[in-house]
Design a protein that fits this description.
It is a single chain. It is built from 17 helices and 20 strands. By secondary structure, it is of the alpha/beta class. The chain folds into three domains: about 1-90, Rossmann fold; about 95-300, UDP-N-acetylmuramoyl-L-alanine:D-glutamate ligase (3-Layer(aba) Sandwich); about 310-440, Mur ligase, C-terminal domain (Protein-Tyrosine Phosphatase, Chain A). Cell wall formation. Catalyzes the addition of glutamate to the nucleotide precursor UDP-N-acetylmuramoyl-L-alanine (UMA).
Length: about 450
C-alpha cells in the first residue's frame, strides 16, 4: 500500500511515521518548504520526501492520501487525486484505525483550544492516561505510533473534520458556531456548519454530543438533522435535567445521578465565555468519572492558554493583553466584551470574509483608538473610521505597540485582538502573539 502525505508539518510527519510503522510505502510531498527539524525526522525514519514542488507521478500512484488541514480542496493536486478516485483523508481519519483509545473530539469556531486544554487538564489531574493532540502539540498520529495513551483529547478544526470517513469520538463537543473560514466554504455559512457537525456523524447511542444550547446555528442544525448520540446541552440561561448550566452564580453539571455544583467565582478563568468552556469540559470529566474534588481543584487552578486574553504586563497603569488567537470576529467580540475600561485595540491581518458590524456597539462603547496592523486594512477603516477618534495604520508589531504606548493613558487597556488570520505579516498567530509580548517587554 502506498501512502502519500501532502504537507510536511506536524500532522504530515506524524502520519508518515505511523504509516511507515504500519508497513505502508510512504512518500511526503510539500509544495512549500519543509522545516529542517522535520526533514531530520524524515531522514531518521528513512522516509522519502520532496519540498517546494508536487511531482505528480509520485503522488497520483497513491492508494491513499493524507492531506494536511491547511491545503484547500481547490488545490490542483487535490482535484487531480479526486478525479482518479484516490481517497484523500485527514490525519485523524488515518490514525483512528490504529488505536483503540477513547477520544474526546472538540470543535467550534471559538473556545475550542481553551476547552481542549481544560478538558485535558481535568482528565490528567484525575489520573487518566491521557494525550493531547489534533490542532495542538504533538500530532495524534505520532503519539499513536508510539502507542502512548488510553484516552486522547483532540482539538478538531473543520478542515480536519472534512477529511473523516469513519472516525467517531466517544464524546464530542461543539463549543459554538459563528462565521469563520468562509473563504474555504464557497462563502456559504451552511457548508461550514455542516462541516462542524461531521464530528457527530458516526456517533452511536453509546456516545455523547455536548453542545452550546444558547447557540442559534447549533440549535437550528439539531432541529433539522439527526444524531444518534446522547445529547448533553450546556447553557448560561436555561436549566436541564440532563446537561450543564449556570444558575445563581454556580455551575451545575447533571450528566449522571450524582450532580456536581461549584461557585462560578472559584473558576480560574474570567469571563462568561469561559464559564461555558468550563461547563463543557466538566461534563466530559463527569462522564469519564473523574472525582468531584479533582474537578473542583482543576477548575480553580487551570492557567489558561497562551495568546488567548493573556495578560502580558502593566506599564504606567496600562494593561497590555495578548489575544492573538482571536482570528475571527466572534473571538474578538468576547475579548472586547470582557474589557472594563477604555481600550486601544490592535486589529487586522488576512480577512476571511469578516463582517465587522456585530462589533459596532462594543467599539462605540469601549474603544478609544484603533491601530490597524495588516497589509490590507480597507474594510476595518471603512467600518470604524466614523466610530473612533483615533485610527492609525502600522506595518509592524513594534510600530503597533509604540503607537499604542503613545495613545494609552492611565487605566486604559491595550488589546491585541486581530479578528483576522496572521499570514500577511507573521508565520502564524503564535508568532504574532510572541512578537507582541516581545514589543511590550521592550517598551
Amino acid at each position: 500500500m502506498r501512502l502519500v502525505v501532502l504537507g510536511g508539518g506536524e500532522s504530515g510527519v506524524g502520519t508518515a511515521i505511523l504509516g511507515k510503522k504500519k508497513g505502508y510505502e510512504v512518500f511526503v510531498s510539500d509544495f512549500g518548504k519543509i522545516k529542517n527539524n522535520y526533514k531530520e525526522v524524515l531522514l531518521l525514519h528513512k522516509i522519502k520526501f520532496e519540498d517546494e514542488q508536487h511531482t505528480e507521478e509520485l503522488i497520483l500512484n497513491a492508494d491513499v492520501v493524507m492531506k494536511s488541514p491547511g491545503i484547500p480542496d481547490k488545490a490542483p493536486i487535490i482535484k487531480k487525486l479526486k478525479e482518479k478516485n484516490i481517497p484523500v483523508i485527514s490525519e485523524i481519519e488515518f490514525t483512528n484505525q490504529f488505536t483503540d483509545a477513547v477520544t474526546v473530539g472538540i470543535t467550534g469556531s471559538n473556545g475550542k483550544t481553551t476547552t481542549t486544554m481544560l478538558t485535558y487538564h481535568l482528565l490528567k489531574q484525575g489520573g487518566l492516561n491521557v494525550g493531547l493532540a489534533g490542532n495542538i502539540g504533538k500530532s495524534f498520529a505520532w503519539q499513536v505510533s508510539e502507542d502512548k495513551h488510553e484516552v486522547y483529547v483532540l482539538e478538531l478544526s473543520s478542515f480536519q473534520l472534512d477529511g473523516i470517513i469513519n472516525y467517531k469520538p466517544h464524546i464530542a463537543i461543539i463549543t459554538n458556531i459563528s462565521p469563520d473560514h468562509l473563504d474555504r466554504y464557497n462563502y456559504n455559512y451552511d457548508e461550514y456548519i455542516a462541516s462542524k457537525f461531521r464530528i457527530t456523524m458516526n456517533q452511536t447511542e453509546d456516545d455523547y454530543l455536548i453542545y452550546d444550547d444558547d447557540d442559534q446555528a447549533i440549535k437550528n442544525w439539531l432541529k433539522n438533522n439527526k444524531t444518534r448520540a446522547k445529547l448533553i446541552p450546556f447553557s448560561l440561561t436555561k436549566q436541564f435535567e440532563t446537561g450543564a448550566y449556570e444558575t445563581e452564580n454556580n455551575i451545575n453539571i447533571n450528566t449522571s445521578n450524582d450532580p456536581f455544583v461549584m461557585p462560578t467565582s472559584h473558576l480560574s478563568l474570567e469571563g462568561k465565555h469561559n464559564v461555558k468552556n468550563a461547563l463543557a469540559a466538566s461534563s466530559v470529566a463527569q462522564l469519564l468519572k473523574i472525582r468531584k474534588a479533582t474537578i473542583r481543584e482543576s477548575l480553580s487552578d487551570f492557567q489558561g492558554v497562551e495568546h488567548r486574553l493573556e495578560k502580558v504586563l502593566k506599564i504606567q497603569n496600562v494593561q497590555y493583553i495578548n489575544d492573538s488567537k482571536a482570528t475571527n470576529v466572534n473571538a474578538t467580540f468576547f475579548a472586547l466584551d470582557s474589557m472594563t475600561g477604555p481600550t486601544v485595540w490592535i486589529v487586522g491581518g488576512v480577512d476571511k470574509g469578516n463582517d465587522y458590524t456585530e462589533l459596532m456597539a462594543l467599539v462605540n462603547e469601549k474603544v478609544k483608538a484603533i491601530i490597524c496592523l495588516g497589509i490590507d486594512n480597507k474594510k476595518i477603516i471603512e467600518a470604524f473610521a466614523d466610530v473612533v477618534d483615533i485610527l492609525v495604520e502600522v506595518g509592524s508589531m513594534t510600530e503597533a505597540v509604540r503607537q499604542a504606548y503613545k495613545i494609552a493613558e492611565k487605566g486604559d487597556t491595550v488589546l491585541l485582538s486581530p479578528a483576522c488570520a496572521s499570514f500577511d505579516l507573521f508565520e502564524n498567530y503564535e508568532d504574532r502573539g510572541r512578537q507582541f509580548k516581545q514589543a511590550v517587554q521592550n517598551l
